[in-house]
Amino acid sequence: MLNPWGLFLCQLAINTSYHVIKASLCLGGSDIFATVSENRPVGEFIANLSIVGDPTGINSIRLCLTGENANWFYLEGRTIRLNSSILRVLDRERQGSVLMAALTCYEDDIIQSEYRVMVEILNENDNKPRFLEKTIQPRYISELTAVNSVVFTVKAIDADGDTITYIIDRASPDASYFRIDLPNSGKVILDKPLDYETKTKLQLVIYAVETNTKEWYNTSASLIVNVEDGDDHYPQFLPCTPISQDHNHTVVCTNPIYVVNITEKDQDMLLNFSPGPIHAEDGDRSLDTPLLYSILSGADKNRFQIDNQTAEITMTKRVENRHMTPIFRLRIMASQLNDPKKYSVATALVRVLAENRFPPLFNRTTYKGFIIESSSPATLVSTYGNEVLFIQAIDQDFVDGVNPKMHYSLQPTRATTGLYHITEEGVIIAKTDRLRSFDRLILEVVAMDEESGEVAKASVDIELLQRSQPIPWTSFRDMDVRIAGGIMGGILLLLVTTLFLLIRWAKRRRRRQRQKPSGRGAVALGKHLKVIEDDLW
């Protein structure tokens, strides 16, 4: 029989032996280093445990996973597996390249050992390149930007770390303006000059392409490049008179010649030029730089003065003799306020004329015209006798009545627009192939004295005849048949009545002569009755 002290030592020995055996179940393990590819399915094998004990055995031990990424694993006996799902996919770009956890082995809730679990996530090419939003925002480039200079840079990133090459889609509308010399840099270079007046907005498409993968994933971005106006054009007097157009559809203009007419009596007056008013604009439309006006030559000792802001020209004193100075030629300059070297020059003519006393007049209020039906695209309008119809206004300010500055026009109407045209000589041309037989139109002709602005008006009655119908020779033939018949009947009745009266008068006279013997004697003598009667007295 053991004493108490001996019993205590025996129990201690038993307990110590028990714990040693039990603790040995957590021994034999080691840190775990493994790899797994991203996007793997649920339950993917990670590693087997090398500890002695079996968590599912009779003398079981308890294993526990802890740490930052412990929720990505679960234990199945002595095996560690990936804890993923359809909604929870392992993504290297999100979770990082390594998953770390701690494996703790418990026995009777006492920690016996602890091992590290380190799993490297292997990359898969599961991401496309993506442009950084700030690099593909709308761009603003001055039209003065030099060719071959870098105008902007695009940047795309690939979450898989793949190499990216940038390519301009040559099918995009304005790809010809740009190029990329270094494909991996994303630097876009201007390849040809910009012109704000021709094109203010450019569009192009750029691709970012993986070049080190078999998938060659790519993405595209549409870029808008706004062209900003630069001060590269000179002022332009208006209205613009186009003379040519280059390959960029840029219109080249010449400055107009401004004209005004005055008389010897005019002075201290504002001149109204035609085309007017005198005005210039900055060739760079969006800049619209303020301009200054001045008279370079022809001011004739300040006879003509110009407002340097409005370009209004005033004549300060009258012209003494129009025969000595029939015309003044002014050279007007418009220059930019911020850069006087950018300027343009136009000509203004001041013509001194005799005073206008008579307005233009037509010699009749209505003209008669005829057109014979034809398939010809154009025909001159004729008048009676198949003569060309000339419509001319008389101006008594001229000796021969012909004003060389008379301008003829037709008042447009819905029925005549595009069908008739009048020349400066007063000849009317009709588009015959667009007219129909028996059409009858009334045109209004306006004659305007371009110097005085006075006008005269007349009407033209135009009738379209059939092909076989002749043009009347006189206005009588053009009368209505009923009216002509009535007139003929009246004339015939008048002739019959006159003949009846003459016969009656002759009979009465013969009767009187038979009643007078002296009368019969006078007839026999061959003398006048009055003479015979005087002899009898």
UniProtKB/TrEMBL annotation:
GO terms for molecular function: beta-catenin binding; cadherin binding; calcium ion binding. Signal peptide: none annotated. It is found in: Membrane. It comes from the Eukaryota. InterPro entries: Cadherin (IPR039808), Cadherin-like_dom (IPR002126), Cadherin-like_sf (IPR015919). One of its GO terms (biological process) is cell migration. Keywords: Calcium, Membrane, Repeat, Transmembrane, Transmembrane helix. The chain crosses the membrane at residues 483-506. Coiled coil: none annotated. Residues 34-131, 133-237, 254-362, 363-474 form the Cadherin domain. Pfam families: Cadherin. One of its GO terms (cellular component) is catenin complex. PANTHER family: CADHERIN-23, CADHERIN-RELATED FAMILY MEMBER 5-LIKE ISOFORM X1. This is Cadherin domain-containing protein. The lineage of its organism: Eukaryota, Metazoa, Chordata, Craniata, Vertebrata.
